[in-house]
Amino acid sequence: MRVLLIGSGGREHALAWKIHQSPLVDTLFALPGSDAMERLAKRIADVSPADAAAVADAAAAHSIDLVVVGPEDPLAAGVADALRERGIACFGPSAAAARLESSKSFAKAFMARHGIPTADFAVFDRLDAARDYVRELGGPCVVKADGLAAGKGVYVCDDVAGAEAALGEIMEDGRFGDAGARVVIEERMVGEEASYYAISDGQHVAPLAAAQDHKRALDGDTGENTGGMGAYSPTPVFSAAIEKRVLEEVVHPAIRGMAAEGMPYVGVLYVGLMIEPDGTPRVVEFNVRFGDPETQPLLVRMEGDLVPLLDGAARGALERAPLPEWGDAAVCVVLASGGYPRSYETGLAIEGLDPDGVPRDAGEGVTVFHAGTARRADGVFETKGGRVLGVTARGADVREARERAYAAADAIGFEGGHLRRDIADRALGR
Ligand code: AMP
Ligand code: GLY
């Protein structure tokens, strides 16, 4: 089988690593891929992943049997639609279905239509009306840019002043461009967060597992929201009883609802959840792709072949794919550029990696996924993004995985590099 993976980040490096292990795959291609992925995949680097027609042309030209889309932007741009029109199987939802992520107001209204538990909300296209609303609420709330903002368009506010400042950045200063022309203002939920993953072919559901991300830039969940500074799986807050509720109250109603509304959901549904203190799960957000960096520990933990699930979902035959087994535990620590999620420098040499991008002295169970790097002509890797590397380790339990990940992360470095020191602490009761 010839598989094409779309994307170039840490999540895609992890997907490439897992897909490459499948005995079903003869050749893996990556569009555009990354320098570090060259050991695993042939690159198609001259096509823009969000150019749906060009992606479909490239897939046809390379006789691709299955396309796997990593990030949300190509899905929102209709890559899956363009591929299906050409008769090429694609793991990833249509642009219409991808609105579960690309429009927060669409997702909230969808959840309301289908009785899926989530925070109360209101939608605004005008700054003055939004301001009046936060003043009326008079307390904590969450302000979100409606469109795609790489995980950074959300402001969790303690009070009215914070909410007004957030509205100013989004609607007045235009920090997110058109993505912030509309805002969603939500009730601020309390509890512990977890994300859950399930694959669907539009009708059937294959449950995967839960993970927990660390979205804030700094230790103790302080600082700004980022794309994610680390993740681990499994997560103790996500008991079997909660998983059952999430499947019954969220995943199945969502898959049924999308089908009933004429946009069957094909791909992985990422359910961001708040587990309230009494154990009630409520949806924080849907994403229409795997999490980044949650995929890194998730796939490192996953036993068995991922490809039958991806291919089964893309072909409407998910019920024939064997469900994966989940081994022990895994932790991913992100090494980020100094200044991320705001501005940062790139082009800084990374110490501790060999010319394949693999750590010189990785300990047992360690895999390093590249999120934002490039290889220089002399074989040295340099920084090329906000999130640079996802140092991921597997262990008998979260404690061991965490120790291995930090030991490996400490042997890699670049100027101004920044990592959180408390990834997975919550799982250890700290
Ligand atoms: P989102 O991109 O919608 O997942 O939001 C990013 C982060 O903001 C989430 O992971 C939560 O930590 C936080 N957040 C979003 N919405 C809410 C909410 N309604 N209540 C509390 N926290 C929230
Ligand atoms: N780590 C958060 C996300 O992938 O959206």
Describe the structure in brief.
The protein is α+β, with helices and mostly antiparallel strands. The chain folds into four domains: 2-91, Rossmann fold, CATH 3.40.50.20; 120-186, 2-Layer Sandwich (Dna Ligase, domain 1), CATH 3.30.1490.20; 190-326, ATP-grasp fold, B domain (D-amino Acid Aminotransferase, Chain A, domain 1), CATH 3.30.470.20; 329-428, Glycinamide Ribonucleotide Synthetase, Chain A, domain 4, CATH 3.90.600. Helices cover 28% and strands 27% of the residues.
Describe the protein.
Strand 15 and strand 16 form a beta hairpin. Helix 2 (52-61) packs across helix 4 and helix 7 runs antiparallel to helix 8. The longest helix has 21 residues, at 240-260. The chain folds into 4 domains: 2-91, 3-Layer(aba) Sandwich (Rossmann fold); 120-186, 2-Layer Sandwich (Dna Ligase, domain 1), CATH 3.30.1490.20; 190-326, 2-Layer Sandwich (D-amino Acid Aminotransferase, Chain A, domain 1); 329-428, Alpha-Beta Complex (Glycinamide Ribonucleotide Synthetase, Chain A, domain 4), CATH 3.90.600. Helices cover 28% and strands 27% of the residues. It is α+β, with helices and mostly antiparallel strands and 430 residues long. The strands form 6 sheets. The protein has an 8-stranded antiparallel β-sheet with strand order 16-15-10-11-14-19-23-20, with helices on both faces. The protein has a 5-stranded parallel β-sheet with strand order 3-2-1-4-5, sandwiched between helices. A 4-stranded antiparallel β-sheet has the order 6-9-7-8, with helices on both faces. The protein is globular, with a radius of gyration of 21 Å. Glycine (GLY) is lined by residues 151, 213, 227-228, 287, 291-292, 294.
